[in-house]
Amino acid sequence: MDTRRLTSSDSHGPNVPYIHKVGIPPKQSLLKEFKSTVKETFFSDDPLRPFKDQPKSRKIVLGLQAVFPILEWGRSYNLRKFRGDLIAGLTIASLCIPQDIGYSKLANLPPQYGLYSSFVPPLIYAFMGSSRDIAIGPVAVVSLLLGTLLRKEYDPDKEKSEYLRLVFTSTFFAGITQATLGVLRLGFLIDFLSHAAVVGFMAGAAITIALQQLKGFLGIKHFTKETDIISVMKSVFGSVHHGWNWQTIVIGASFLTFLLVAKYIGKKNKKLFWVPAIAPLISVVLSTFFVYITHAKQDGVAIVGRIEKRINPPSLDKIYFSGENLLKGFRIGAVAGMIALTEAVAIGRTFASMKDYQVDGNKEMVALGTMNVIGSMTSCYVATGSFSRSAVNYMAGCQTAVSNIVMSFVVFLTVKFLTPLFEYTPNAILSSIIISAVIGLIDFDAAILIWKIDKLDFMACMGAFLGVVFKSVETGLLIAVALSLAKILLQVTRPRTAILGKIPMTTVYRNIGQYPEATKVPGVLIVRVDSAIYFSNSNYTKERILRWLTDEEDNLKETYQPKIEFLIVEMSPVTDIDTSGIHAFEELHRSLQKREIQLVLANPGQGVLDKLYASGFPDLIGENKIFLTVADAVHTCSPKMVHEV
Predict the structure, then answer these.
(1) Is the pLDDT of residue 101 over 90?
(2) What is the per-residue pLDDT across 44-77, written as a single tens digit (0 to 9) for each?
(3) What does the alpha-carbon distance between residue 457 and residue 449 come to, in Å, rounded to a whole number?
(4) What CA–CA distance (Å, rounded) separates 490 from 272?
(5) Are 383 and 375 in contact (CB under 8 A)?
(6) Could you read off the pLDDT of 25-51 as tens digits, one per residue?
(7) Which of 50, 90, 64 is nearest to 398 (CA)?
(8) How many CA atoms lie less than 13 Å away from 231 in the CB half-sphere?
């Protein structure tokens, strides 16, 4: 097909520019077009590409490698890589053991369940995960979220059995949610929680977690079960005369200072990353020894107490598969699973970009989901990627996911043989460890950058933050999701439009608001629509264009300039259009006819052009009113205009 259409003016001389015709794509069958759309939406990475033109035996091998990536990278594993993984695994194990004991308290669980959750899930992930750097285990935010939501259903002290069963049920459905999103390739759903909302939510959760640790840090026995800052502060200061324990405060403050100094040393000198990594374990060992030899328990210093010395007991029979508790478990698990997934995928992508390799988001979801489903059957609660441990894992020189296996083995030995050593560990130390860990979740630099870039994003950030701090974790989460969706709806329903003018000495047309030197074309109004046109914004788009036109006509009357005869709509940013959008353009055309103004389109994309022709819209305005560029449209609509060279 000839891509150029000459006008009668072309015969006037060789210097007259060609008017290029918009290419009309060949028609496709509806079924083929539907398949193409579905493939691009759900299978944009073409996951079956490696299987093409492969023998059956090879396809089986590739299929196993797709499910278990360890079968692929394991073939090239060597002693040098193991040395790096061994050091990294031992390092993160020294960090995770005291953290796990503390995080289990956030979830209102006995301390051994935190250790259980760093034994089985990391092993499963090592075989199925695609990230080399992520370290798996319980995390503070998910532990707090689970503890808060579950406590509303059952009292963890008075109804221990029902509470524990609901924990395993929630973990099971968290895994099912994660794996389902991966299998159905619906990972894009977690992107609806904007980065700004996540920053605010994490910061609010960090403060809430830190406030919860004041119970152990100050030695308060009777503490509020609410998580908002007002209730916590009332509980703290209401106990100042009879609830605080000075020995506990001295222990907590001393070791918190030690942990923060260790973290500062590691931050200032990257080669000393191991200092903040082993500091929590050193704190536990020293404080436990101190409490044991001084009999501080008799002075009111609260200790961890006996930790059950056994490997993960089976818990499949404790999961609710029917009744009202199944629905409760599904609701809580789905929320916890999505938050855990958001954190893990973000961590995996961050470290993958630093080492220049790819993390398959859908495989990650399947791996995380599978490990939590199996974990729920082996007395674990929701595990995910931990940023602090993953950062230590990365800096310790991990090479593959074998570092998770090493960590898991160390946790196994701890659970099997060493748990009696933690009996006299003071709760104040666990509180100090958690406080020092969650401080890193407060990202001031990110919040400042969000403020500078986008004020609406900053509102979402602060809304999530304030919701968590002043109400509850789930309220903050709801606000984060609501504000993220509200921003999407606002951008979709109110797309940007702009008036274009000609840049002097060129044939380029740009926004006159951005380029004040751009000049309008006499008798022509050029409008650009910067969005797809759907049912949600079609009426607004039509009305906004007509308002631009009305404003321009009013200005022309005051200055006695030629009336507008052509309205050119620049459509290159319009990625798609639906029936409502086409209907809006038909109404726009009729409105313009009453004003004796012709509608002209410039550079509609292939998908848009397909739909325009399917609806017969070009016949309505005339095929000769659709151009490749704004310059071509102006040249035809305003032939008497003097074109600058």
Answers:
(1) yes
(2) 566 667 777 778 777 788 888 888 999 988 989 9
(3) 10
(4) 47
(5) yes
(6) 666 665 666 566 665 566 656 666 777
(7) 90
(8) 14
Please choose, from the candidates 269, 207, 278, the residue with its C-alpha nearest in 3D space to the C-alpha of residue 434: 207
CB 216 within 8 A of CB 252: yes
Residue 12: the pLDDT is 44
Exposure on the CB side of residue 549, measured as CA atoms within 13 A: 24
Burial class for 78, CB neighbours closer than 10 Å (0-12, 13-18, 19+): exposed
Instruction: Find the angle CA(328)-CA(329)-CA(331) to the nearest 5 degrees.
Output: 65
CATH, residue 513: 3.30.750.24
Distance of CA 458 to the CA centre of its chain: 16
Domain boundary among 474, 489, 504: 489
**β-strand pairing of 497-502 with 509-511:** antiparallel
Alpha helices in 155-194 (DSSP H): 160-183
Check: CB of residue 87 under 8 Å from CB of residue 81: no
pLDDT, tens digit, for every residue of 476-519? 888 888 888 888 888 888 899 999 999 999 989 999 999 999 99
Element (DSSP H or E) covering residue 570:
strand 566-570
Q: Match 């961890």 to its residue by tokens.
A: 304
> Which run of H or of E encompasses 390?
helix 387-395
Residue 349 and residue 365: Cα distance in Å, rounded? 13
- DSSP assignment string, 6-45: --GGGGG-TTSPPEEBPP-PPP--HHHHHHHHHHHHH-TT
Show which of 469, 489, 509 is a domain's final residue. Answer: 489
Handedness of CA 151, 152, 157, 161 (dihedral sign): negative
Output the CA torsion 508→513→518→519 (10° steps).
120
Could you identify the residue written with the tokens 């009453």? 594
Calculate the dihedral angle through the C-alpha atoms of 81, 84, 90, 95, rounding to the nearest 10 degrees.
-120
Structure tokens at 191: 């992107």
Cα distances (angstroms) measured from residue 180 to each of 228, 230, 336: 33, 39, 14
- pLDDT tens-digit series, residues 345-360: 888 888 888 888 888 8
Q: Looking at the structure, tell me whether residues 368 and 394 fall in a common domain.
A: yes
Rounded CA gap, 88 and 407, in Å? 8
- Which helix (DSSP H) or strand (DSSP E) does residue 510 occupy? strand 509-511
**Which alpha helices (DSSP H) does 396-516 contain, by range?**
402-413, 427-438, 444-453, 455-470, 473-493
- Does residue 602 lie in a domain region? yes
What does the H/E/C string look like for 577-589?
ECHHHHHHHHHHH
Q: What token pair was written down for 197?
A: 């909302």
CB neighbours of residue 189 within 10 Å:
11
DSSP β-ladder status, 598-602 and 19-20? unpaired
74 assigned to some structural domain: no
Distance CA 539, CA 494 (A): 10
- Residues 6+ positions from 302 with CB-CB distance below 8 Å: 216, 219, 221, 245, 248, 426, 427, 428
Report the distance separating Cα 435 and Cα 98, nearest Å. Answer: 13
402 falls within a domain:
yes
Residue 589: name the closest of 548, 543, 621, 625 by CA.
621
544 assigned to some structural domain: yes
pTM of the model: 0.79
Tokens of 558: 């005051």
| Cα distance from N-terminal residue to C-terminal residue, the chain | 30
Average pLDDT of 611-623? 90
Question: Which residues lie below 8 Å from residue 56, measured CB to CB, with a gap of 6+?
Answer: none
Could you tell me if 113 and 160 lie in one domain? Answer: yes
Quote the domain boundaries for residue 586: 494-637
